Structures are given as C-alpha cells and as structure tokens.
Amino acid sequence: MKKKSELLKQEPSEILIIKEQQFYEDVRLILQRAREEAYNSVNGIMTYAYWNVGRRIVEQEQYGETKARYGSYLIKNLSEQLSDEFGTGFSVANLRNCRQFYLVFPENSYGFSMAGKIPWSHLRSIMRISDEEERNFYLKEALTENWSVRVLERNIKSGYYKRMLSTQLPDKENKALEFVKDPFVLEFMGATPNISQLESDLETTIINNLQKFLLEMGKGFSFVGRQMRICTETTDFYIDYSDSLIIPILA
After folding, report:
1. Which of 31, 155, 203, 250 pairs with 184 at a CA distance of 20 to 30 A?
2. Global pTM?
C-alpha cells in the first residue's frame, strides 16, 4: 500500500520513466536467459559431437594392423582435413582428447550423462584422472559449485578429492566437521612453512587471499569478520580468526 501511495504522488512523467525502466529490464532478462540457454544447448551439442568423433576414431583404428602407427597416421590426416574445412579446433592434440573422451566416458556412465552440462575445457582436465569415482566427484563439484577451469585444475593438483574423502567421519550427525579438510594446501598465500610465524601474520596473509582460502576450506563456509568484538557488561573481547573469522554454514 505504501508503494502504491508513493506512485500516486509522483508525476505522470516520473511514473512513465519507471515503467519504461522496468520494461527494459524485463526484455533484457528475457534475452539474457535465452542467450544462456542457447550457450548451454550449443555446449552440450558440441560436447557430444566430440564424443562421437572420438568413437569414430577408435572404430577406425581397429581396422589397422599396427594400431599405434595407424592411429597416429589416422589422427594426423583427419586433423589436416578438418582444419581445412572447419578451421581451428581440430588439432592433433584436440582429436586425441576426443578419442580419450570416448574411452573414459562410456555411453551409459555417469560421466557421459554429466558431460553435456560441463564445458569442454573442464572435461579435458577431468578425463585425465584415472579413478572413476574421483572423476565423478569433480564432475559433480565443478557443476554444482560453478568452478572455473583454474579452480578445478588447482583442486585436482592439490588432491582436493582425497582430502575431502579423508574427512568423512562415521558420525554423520556431525555435519560441521564434515566440511573440514586435513591437511590444508595453502601454497597460494606464498607463505613458507615456519613454526615460529606469528598468528597475526598468518591472519593477515589469509585476509589478503580470502577468496582462495575459502575455496581451500571447502563449501559451506562464510567470512564473518576480523577481530570480532564481543561485549559483556564489564569487558570487551576480540575473537581472532581461528575462532570466528570463518564459520561453517549449516543447512
């Protein structure tokens, strides 16, 4: 009611401007959503096209007597022909990626069903992982957490999956501790291992690299504050980062 009365007090020209702004915003959102859906659709189509290219390469290789020699010759020739007709994107290396993509993600696998939702750049990193469960873990996390390629590659290299796996406790009711990983990999802070390092120095380093630190902690954590002030009737206390800087968010 308050907003309605405020609109009535405004001049007709002002109301028209507000309506035109809302009109523009509505149209902009329509186009933005359509563009996102089109991108996701094209990404999925191209991803499965790469899978089918890999399938045909593997099938064709089976006709050669010496697979290694014939496979190398086959991919090199295919790369030259496709590059002449379709341009960039069909290098020997990328065609080998297509071949590996087909071999790593069989048609009825979880990875195959997820592949159309993940960018090709992410898939190239994930399909190099030998363990299927670990691959599936990164597929799911990359999608649900919206990881960039850089974040994904860092998590793979730092053993994110194994560290998360090691923290799964028998007591499933203790949800807070399930988020904590041990050990942490904090190489991005540029701090050398030093047992004599002051806690304040570590706190400052974490603050300066807060985004990366939260990623290392895992999902479900939020930045609360630095040196939070807690007041009582007689004394003020300041809780440091180890107690209150980062807290888990429980559902």
Report:
1. 250
2. 0.59
